[in-house]
Amino acid sequence: MIWFKRLTKYLLMVLLGLLVLYAVSRLGVVYFTSQLEGERDPYIQMTNASGVILRWQTREESIGSVRLGEHPQQLDQIFSEPAASRLHQVKIGGLKPDTTYYYAVSDTLGGQAGGTESYHFRTSPPAGVPRPTRIWVMGDSGEPGPILTGVRDSMQQWVDQHPRAGYPDIDVWLSLGDLAYRSGTDEQFQKSLFDTFPEQLRRVALWPVYGNHDARRWTYFRLFDLPEQGEAGGVPSGTEHYYSFDYGAVHFVMLDSEASANAPDSDMYQWLARDLLKNKSQWLIAVFHHPPYSKGSHDSDIRRGSNVAMVAMRENILPLLEGAGVDLVLGGHSHMYERSWLLDCHYGDSTTFGKNRIVSDGVNHLNAEYIKPLQNTPHAGAVYVVAGSASKVDQGPINHPAMPVSMLEAGSLVIDIEGNQLTTRFINDRAEVKDMFTITKQDGYTSGYAGCAP
């Protein structure tokens, strides 16, 4: 039996060695495919009322600079990096709020881009100051190809046909996660984001949330500058995993449903509670990748795999958001479109959903009109939207009882906020408006909803 023990020991050592070798090789793959390589055109990051960050990449190290001005032929302000780099990042401050600026970038090796009318951005309006705001929302856009370009072009066609005098075509650009399939590598980000959206990236900051596919590499946090210290409004979070920002009369909370704990004693939960307590904005929009209600390619009733995050966000985070009067909750992950009634206080699975959780049915399913009190009121109802079909459409029963509208359609959302009204349109990849709903806030309105009572 001695020989058997020796053989067993030898085989265990070989197996352990193979596991170590696999782990090391896997770590190497993750490391090398997460490196930011090659050239990238300028892209806008983290705009606020007084500043912006401009980023771009070059193949060799050089000192980058930005020329800036309020007219494309008069770029008279110059901002430069302190040291040479391939990954250029120029932080610009001291700008006027709600103002359009034109720019050009250059480096000490002779590279340059911009200086034309298409290279511009607009600073944010002051926090709390109402003004017409247009938001573009895309979810799960990580698969480059004809569906994604169709969704992009259809959005652009619709906003071009519905211009707003004196304002940009898009004010705020949100991603619902999974920007790069399947593994969030630098090459995949290049194809699905930078190659697909060059015009949008050069003039509008993208505000993303962390998706499960983004989390498979380290690229995500290397590409984006996200506000850890409240640089764009809200309470400092101390992390780029979750954050908040203000745009005029809208407060956005961008949550991490993938990698951050969300129980009441967690850092994210405690930060969110502080942020919501401080918020006084007229409109409150919450964004995270894993939707609390879905019967699409992912099922929010299933407590395993990536679906666990959907359950946890519903049970832990929704009571906090609804208690703060949240108006709209946006998620991706399921690759289709689903939209709820005006809901409140449903924290169980789909079998426990009842009509007593519907604050308003909106009268018409495909052109719903919801009314809420003018002032932020706890548990006055929120609309939940799943829009994870910017680049692919998968199968699913799409029969969640909280979602009266569900479609196996590719598309994205265009949200217009003007005064006391928020209008959301789901525009498919053929430029068709397939669903629309409005939320109107009225002074003195009471719905008669009984709140979270059984």
What do you see in this structure?
It is a single chain. By secondary structure, the protein is of the alpha+beta class. It folds into 2 domains: 40-122, Immunoglobulin-like (Sandwich), CATH 2.60.40.10; 133-442, Metallo-dependent phosphatases (Purple Acid Phosphatase, chain A, domain 2). It contains 7 helices and 23 strands. Helix 6 packs parallel to helix 7 (307-323). It is globular, with a radius of gyration of 23 Å. The termini are far apart.
Strand and helix map with partners:
Blueprint: H1 2-33, E1 40-45, E2 52-62, E3 64-69, E4 77-80, E5 85-92, E6 100-107, E7 112-114, E8 120-122, E9 133-138, H2 146-161, E10 172-175, H3 186-194, H4 198-201, E11 206-208, H5 219-223, E12 243-247, E13 250-254, H6 267-278, E14 283-287, H7 307-323, E15 328-331, E16 337-343, E17 358-360, E18 367-373, E19 382-387, E20 405-407, E21 411-418, E22 421-428, E23 433-442
Parallel strand pairs: 9-10, 10-11, 13-14, 14-15, 15-19, 18-23
Antiparallel strand pairs: 1-2, 2-5, 3-4, 3-6, 6-7, 6-8, 9-21, 12-13, 16-17, 16-19, 16-20, 21-22, 22-23
Helix pairs in contact: 6-7
- Helix and strand content put the structural class at alpha+beta
Biggest beta sheet attributes: 8 strands, mixed
CATH level 3 topology of the largest domain: Purple Acid Phosphatase, chain A, domain 2
Task: Write down the overall geometry.
Answer: globular
DSSP strand tally: 23
- How many distinct helices? 7
CATH class of the largest domain: Alpha Beta
Task: Please give the alpha-carbon distance between the first and last residues.
Answer: 68 Å
CATH superfamily of the largest domain: Metallo-dependent phosphatases
Evaluate the radius of gyration. Answer: 23 Å
Question: Into which percentage range does the β-strand content fall?
Answer: 25-35%
Helix content: 10-25%
Mean pLDDT: 93
What is the CATH architecture annotation of the largest domain?
4-Layer Sandwich
- Give the tally of structural domains: 2
Uncertain stretches of 5 or more adjacent residues: none
Elements, N to C (H/E): HEEEEEEEEEHEHHEHEEHEHEEEEEEEEE
